[in-house]
Amino acid sequence: MNITRRATLALPAALAAPALHAQAPTKMRVSVIPVLDVAPLHAAIREGYFAAEGIEIDTSTTAGGATGLPGLVAGQFRVVFSNVVSIMLGVREGLPFRFVSGASVGKDSPPDILALLVRKGSGIATGKDLEGKRLASNTRNNIVWLRGMAWVEKTGGDWRRVSTVEVPFPQMADALAGGRVDAAIFSEPFVAAALETHGDRLERIGWPISETAPGGTNAQYVAMAEDLAANAELFDRFARALHKGVDWVNARAGQPALLELIAAFSRVPLARLQRTALPAYPKGVTPAELDTLVATMQRYGLTGSYPASAGLIHRTARV
Amino acid sequence: MLLELDAVSKAFPTRGGPPARVMERVSLEVRAGEFMAVLGPSGCGKSTLLQMAAGLLPPTEGVVRVLGRPITAPPPEAVYVFQQYSRSLLPWRSVRDNVAFALEHRIGRRAARAAAEAPLAQVGLAGFGDHYPWQLSGGMQQRVAIARALAAEPALLLMDEPFSAVDALTRLDLHALVLEICARRKLTVLLVTHDVEEAITLADRIAVLTPRPTTVAQVIEVGIDRPRDPVATRELPRFLELRHALLERLMTRHVG
Amino acid sequence: MRAPTSGTWLVLGLLALWEASARFGWVDSPNWPPVTEVLRALWQDSVTGELPARVGGSLYRMAAGLLAGGAAGVAVGLAFALVPLTARLFGLVVEAVRPIPIPAVIPPLVLFLGLDDPMKITVVALTVFFPVLTNTMQGVRAVEAEALAMGRTFGIGPWRRAACIVLPSCLPYTLAGLRVALGLALVVTVVAEMIAGEQGVGSYLVLMQFAGRAPEMYATVLLLAGLGYALNRGFVALEHRAIHWWFAMGR
Ligand SMILES: Nc1ncnc2c1ncn2[C@@H]1O[C@H](COP(=O)(O)OP(=O)(O)OP(=O)(O)O)[C@@H](O)[C@H]1O
Ligand SMILES: [Mg+2]
């Protein structure tokens, strides 16, 4: 309801947009998580790419993905950054999410942005060893969990016999070192943090992305289908600015400027970022990557009928 | 006639049962300028009677008139002085502001404060204006309540056992105060009490109540000259005679 | 200067224990930084102006919620106690809403009010409303019947009686409710800020958690503890000033 009201209000504004840019920037509220994946968005904000398109971005940080997608449905956000599994689960339930842009994918070879850590000397090295054990994931049924289950199976274990415990990333290292879980799937920069601070007690036994799905899809930006249909021009401008941010980030891969940008918005100490693995930052989303993901989801119990991938990708993500 | 109770009855609703008839067709007349005492055993309905006279409690049957006019709300001529003085004083106000409270709504705060000084002096509390009620003794608190009543300059003062909660010496002191005030001002007083000596010391006439359901058993002329002294009055033959008759009457009623 | 009380010594002792436990590795986790590092983090983000700005924002939201919820609590409490019809009409609704835990009302509030100040202030106001309401009703019931009758016998009208007799005599009860509410309000403000948005101490706490900056996290915790303590002390001081008579009477 909120969306449609906003859409009707925004339509004339969008038609008159080119003339209005200079005076009245369109405000767009974007839900983000304070993680490395959103570096291009912050680059585009800081470099003034959004301003140049007549857009003012208002980021809203949420502690997990939990309020992002429901907030999109409720009309609290225009765009939401989310992991792909949560997005596809919403789509499966009939929610009209459409991909506006890619955000992050894994790299083809280690280091990954995800890592599986155990206590040193625990004797756990494979998925087989994890059977009957407690594995921490930040949430169940998200991309982190999915890659973890794939890794368990790939290394000879039965994923159904591993019990998943939900532990927020910031508390994972303590939970693992303290023996409250037997293994944990960390996402960067928490991998670097855990090894930096608990390096004497923890060790890495797996790279869940590159060992099971090299270059696998990770997270995207989505918006509501009706909003995209009614304000296509606005979202064109949004994606154009965001993708300039992607270019800015990719042009500075491995350079201090990028890490400084990340340190500024995430507040992660610079020294730790230098030991942190970064994802690849794509602009687009492909039907093939979504099809592969859906197949993986079906395999690990997230069954159901998913609509055709191609129809979910808005034109701004077809690059 | 300043105050008339005309065949006034009062019944309180009870849970489930029939209404409790506390008072049965009580008629009483108080003339302008006189001091009338209502004497009755504890629990017979003295407070109920006085509250109806004050317009604070509607009678179930009968009419209350002030200067001939039937009343349904507190009439401007009358002021009620409560049995529980400590509950009727406002603890967040100083003594002066408590007295001024009787006037503020009519003449404004500043004027009311100024007007509070005279009644305070009259009850012997000059210099205590800045104290709070809870800093004073019980007798002094009752004086504040009396000063507050005087400040409103009522024609009719209705007093509900105002001295029952203070010690015997303080009571004599307050009797002297009331006698003096009544001598000085043109006040009509209706005083309710279960203290026979208090009634004789202060009143011109005494109405004796029966136990529940209450009616007026008798109205007696005191016939002791004024000015009276609360100590000396107690030794007069008329005082002793009245005391004897009233006590006997109340006791026999009690027993039987 | 007054000599430190035994309570002060206990706090200092606990802080020393904290410092030692982190310095000597009794608690061996990077997420347990020594208190001196925490204080340094507190100092650093204070001089940049970031923490003061965030504390200011949180205090603003808290104060707005306290004001709205407190005013509503007093108004509804007075209405319920003085006009029985209102209690019969709305009492059930209030009693039905009261036991709902605040986290459970947040999703519908987000749906109707969004993620900004209106939602956060409403969450605080709801938290404040109930203790103030209950206490105000209790306070009105405790008003002396004699005091009200006294007002009537002096010919004082109902509004003035409400303002000059009922309100002051239930003030101690309302303030006691408000004091309870004050403690809850700070907590709830921070929790509401943790849900979403970029403002306030709550969002700072989330940000620092995600950045893995333990000293800053604990700096926030210390700051909130100090803030809560100061607010309570300030409130008690105001309370003693406003209703000195109540305390003097030994109630
Ligand atoms: N609101 C009420 N509801 C029911 N019964 C009442 C009510 N008020 C008074 N009564 C009853 O009426 C009777 C008279 O009460 P009242 O207070 O007038 O007595 P009293 O003569 O003033 O007593 P005391 O000497 O103790 O002051 C008592 O038996 C009391 O129980
Ligand atoms: Mg009585």
UniProtKB/TrEMBL annotation, chain A:
Signal peptide: 1-22
One protein family per Pfam: NMT1
Keyword Transferase assigned: no
Domain SsuA/THI5-like: 37-250
Transmembrane annotation, as ranges: none
Subcellular location: Periplasm
Alphabetical keyword list: Signal
Family: Belongs to the bacterial solute-binding protein SsuA/TauA family.
The protein's name: ABC transporter substrate-binding protein
UniProtKB/TrEMBL annotation, chain C:
Cross-referenced PANTHER family: ALKANE SULFONATE ABC TRANSPORTER-RELATED, MEMBRANE SUBUNIT, TAURINE TRANSPORT SYSTEM PERMEASE PROTEIN TAUC
Family: Belongs to the binding-protein-dependent transport system permease family.
Listed name of the protein: ABC transporter permease subunit
The species this protein was found in: Falsiroseomonas selenitidurans
Keyword Nucleotidyltransferase recorded: no
Top-rank taxon, per record: Bacteria
Keyword Transmembrane: yes
Pfam families xref list: BPD_transp_1 (PF00528)
